[in-house]
Structure formats: structure tokens, C-alpha cells
Amino acid sequence: MKCPFCAKNLSRVIDTREIGDGIRRRRECQSCSRRFTTYERVAPINLLVVKNDGRREEYNRDKLLEGIRIACAKRPIPSQVLEDLVDDISAQLYATGEVEIPSRAIGEMVMEGLKKLDDVAYVRFASVYRRFQDVDGMVDEIQGLKEWKREATAAQEREAAAQEREAAAQDKVRQDGAQQRQNGAPNNIP
Ligand SMILES: [Zn+2]
Question: How far is the CA of 41 from the centre of ligand 1 (A)?
């Protein structure tokens, strides 16, 4: 960091302060002892969305949220849940490290999120995003959603049953132990 007065390169930080979206540092030149200020901010990351026709558009979190809100209109979903979904998608997009993301990929991420939230919102979003040409396209999508839900429910039930068996087995161990103690035959003593 060059001193603006003497252009020497050595300075020490005498004060650091958080200001809004950045950090302000007061510095003192080691050479001429004069003081100056530097600011540190996160550089904006430009993420471009590549549309189906090849046009590029800057990624806009609020625009994505608006699209999801429309699909979720009058559905029993708290708006914080939608905010979280968009933040989650944004974080995933930035984490890819890519500069350009196909709009298709973002659409799939939204559908993946809505699938777990609300059937109606999911089909609404799919109908706009996949641009169903006819009613068959929509029926296929709904069929796919139904299958996914059936599989997800079955997996949950398998999980619950396994936990129940586990709990029952532990109960049995406890009961057997209690029985043995009552009979005056403590564990592990022949
Ligand atoms: Zn200086």
C-alpha cells in the first residue's frame, strides 16, 4: 500500500473498523508518519445466466425469488422458506465457481426445492419453466412427481420401521437386565 504523500510502501494499521459492507483502516506511513485511510470491500461477483436462446443476463436473486413467489401464490408456505430456498440456490451457484450458468440448471434446482415443499407450486413452476406444449406434458410431470413422492414416502417408512426395531431391541435388553437383577442373578457374574 503506497503512501499517498511520499509514495513509500511501508505503513502500519493504527485502526480497523467495520463499516456497512466493508472495512476501513487508518494507516500511518512508516516513512513520513502521515496518516491515510484505506477501504476493503468484497468485489462483486458477476454471475451470468445463459438463457435457452443463448442470451446472457446477470444473475438476479430477487428476480428468481419473484418467479418462485408467483408459483407459490396462495400456497401455505412461509415467505422465509422461499427466501431460504433462494439463498440456498444462490450459495450453490456461487460455489460452482462458474461465471456462466445455464438457466436450465437453475430451473432444475428450483424444482428440486419445490418438490419437497408443495405439489401445486411445483407443478405451477414446472408448467412455466418447462413450457408444456400440451396437457400430456403436464400429466407426465405430475406422474413423475407422484412416483417421486411414493418412493420418498416408502424410504421414510423403511427408515421409521428400522428405528422402531432398533428401539424394541434395546427395550428387550433393558427388560432382560431388570429381570435378571430381580432374580438375584446380576449380569456377568457366574
Ligand atoms: Zn509517507
Answer: 24
Residues 82 and 128 in one domain: yes
Asked if the model's pLDDT at residue 46 lies above 90, the reply is: no
Ligand 1 center from residue 9 Cα (angstroms): 8
| Gap from CA of 138 to ligand 1 centroid (Å) | 70
118 CB-contact burial (10 Å; exposed 0-12 / middle 13-18 / buried 19+): middle
- The grid coordinates listed for 75 are 400456497
CA distances to 50, 175, 185 from 189, rounded to whole Å, are 73, 18, 7
| Structural domain harbouring 23 | 11-41
pTM as predicted: 0.58
Measured between alpha carbons, how far is 87 from 90 in angstroms, rounded to an integer? 5
Output the CA 43–ligand 1 centroid distance in Å.
27
Say if residue 24 is in the same domain as residue 98: no
First-last CA distance in the chain: 79
Rounded to whole angstroms, how far apart are CA atoms 177 and 60? 62
Interval 89-113 mean pLDDT: 89
Using the mean position of ligand 1's atoms as its centre, give its distance from the Cα of residue 35 in Å.
8
Q: How far is the CA of 81 from the centre of ligand 1 (A)?
A: 52
